[in-house]
Amino acid sequence: MSNTVRVRVPAKVNLALSVGGTDTQGFHELATVFQAVSLGDEVTAEVARPGEFKLAFHGEGAAFLPVDDTNLAIRAAKLLARHAELDDVGVSLVIRKRIPVAGGMAGGSADAAAVLVACSALWGLGLTREELHPLAAELGSDVPFLLLGGTAIGTGRGEQLAPLMTSGTYHWTFALSHTGLSTPSVFKEFDRLSTPGQPAVADELVEALRAGDVPAVGAALSNDLEEAAISLQPTLAHTLRLGRDAGALGSIVSGSGPTCAFLAGSEAHSHEIAEALAVFSGVRAVRRAYGPVAGAQVMG
Ligand SMILES: C[C@@](CO)(OP(=O)(O)O)[C@H](O)COP(=O)(O)OP(=O)(O)OC[C@H]1O[C@@H](n2ccc(N)nc2=O)[C@H](O)[C@@H]1O
Ligand SMILES: Nc1ncnc2c1ncn2[C@@H]1O[C@H](COP(=O)(O)OP(=O)(O)O)[C@@H](O)[C@H]1O
Fold this sequence. Notes:
Layout: E1 4-22, E2 28-47, E3 53-59, H1 72-83, E4 91-97, H2 107-122, H3 129-139, H4 143-148, E5 151-156, E6 160-163, E7 170-176, H5 183-193, H6 203-211, H7 214-220, E8 222-223, H8 226-232, H9 235-245, E9 250-253, E10 260-264, H10 267-278, E11 285-291, E12 297-298
Helix pairs in contact: 1-2, 2-3, 5-8, 6-7
Bound molecules: 4-diphosphocytidyl-2-C-methyl-D-erythritol 2-phosphate (SUD) and adenosine-5'-diphosphate.
Binding site for ATP: 100-110
Organism: Tessaracoccus lubricantis
GO molecular function, one term: kinase activity
């Protein structure tokens, strides 16, 4: 057994996000289509003294992230140790972040999924994705999808997953904001602005994904949280317009935002969209990625 394990994990974009009413715990019923994209974090897990759980970040947003027990990465490691009834383990985690923090791309959830996979390998547990699923769902609604990757329909809180067979490669340009948005506050704003119905994923999107019809996928992108995200960060409306003017096949707020996602017709087109977005002062940075890619995976 190795003393060090490295895991690569993707970010996600919601190609559709249909939001319904709330359950008894205040969680909204969702029907969503997730796609895992190549903008990802890397987690290195190293054996530490029993009972020692350490965390450090490098890269995107590292200075703003907590490294104590409130971090989802530490919570994931401790949850797995408890679940496996291991009281003599410890881990030192180093996370290289590329996924924007509080950006609607599930960065924290991705790190939690990666830590479950890394610690399962590090501690010789060899748990399957199916065995890790309940732990992932306990950590957060988005965490199970980051274990799975690819493209999938999510229902319930987003944790009940059905993989979707798709064709083709999807090239994305992402516009990052200067400030993040908190997921609960975006759902709260959604409740203020909307009367939710029964959440559903449009057949047009599923058909277009199966056929690999990228323009039709672009036309079918939808997000019920978009209005709420724009209400909290009005500059997003201008960012979305810039991407549309640059010929994006679809322009959408990613999840609860504020990252905006633009579907391009090719890799070259994704560069053109990135250049058009980079000139706007409301955009902190642009990133390009493609999907679908695999979920959290041990490297090497
Ligand atoms: C909106 C989505 C879309 O994929 O992701 P982000 O765009 O934030 O990454 C997800 O639903 C976010 O999932 P995740 O970030 O894992 O949320 P959780 O930790 O489970 O919940 C954080 C908070 O979000 C709200 N929440 C989350 C999921 C859900 N189905 N209904 C909710 O109302 C609740 O207020 C909850 O307390
Ligand atoms: N490992 C982590 N990476 C990113 N954010 C984290 C992490 N652990 C806890 N957080 C906290 O979770 C919040 C949501 O971050 P994130 O998961 O990046 O965004 P989102 O839910 O919009 O996709 C942030 O405010 C951040 O402080």
